[in-house]
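Handout, section 4.2: multi-component inputs.
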Amino acid sequence: MNLGPHADFIVAAYAVTVFVVAGLVAWVVLDYAAQRRILGDLEERGITRRAQRKGGQ
Amino acid sequence: MAAIYLANPSRFLTLVNRVLPWLAAITIALFAIGLVRTLHAPDDYQQGATVKIMFIHVPAAWLSMMGWGVMSVAALGTLVWRHPLADVAGKAAAPVGAAFTFICLVTGSLWGRPTWGTYWVWDARLTSVLVMFLLYLGVLALYWTAEDPGRGSRAAAVLTLVGAVNIPIIKFSVDWWNTLHQPASILRMGGNAIDPSILWPLLIMAAAFTLLFFTLHLGAMRNEILRRRVRSMRIMQAQEARA
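Output:
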């Protein structure tokens, strides 16, 4: 595929987009893992939410 | 009714856990189709191959405005209806919307250099989008730096509603003022002005980006709900330790 004389601009635009989207995906995935780990640690230490104590969800 | 049903964060989390893998799979499939169609799309008769930047720039521009729209509805939910998930939705949408606005600005700049001869010009369209990006950063600062999360959320909701004034300015800036940016080519009176060989890849990429937005938004909402649970558990832990 020939991107012509302005190939650098096209490649740079797609590279920036991939970089930013990958960053967003990594942020969501890693943050989820971190929150799950912290919640697990707290529950292991016997700390529960009020809703759980009342038998709710 | 759905708004009342989903007011329970646990119910919302159950729904998100069920929906998110499917949404992610459809997003990846749409991107695969869209990128293949983009690769095979013909060059523009004036701009040549640089038209390929349009397939990421235009969806990012649409989503930057849609992100603010989602935040505006969430802001109303926070300030007027006090829906428990509204604030979560607003806070989760802000970084995603800011990222798409950043993509829009950078790809637009990289497209502008070969087509206009300049990376940047202070015209109405470009400046109003830059203002929206700065507003996104302002909202994020309010969410992330407020000592009292409740006050930070209300301040962010007010700023979001004030910033919503900028959306019609962005949309109609190319009609109201003399700008370097081209006028609307798809959503305009008299129908779209793009050949189907370029329009279809653009629409598929726009659908893929839109689903990506909602996938990331739902994922970020789930994280925010878990973060709030952690916060409330730590507060309870501190109260128990004091007692």
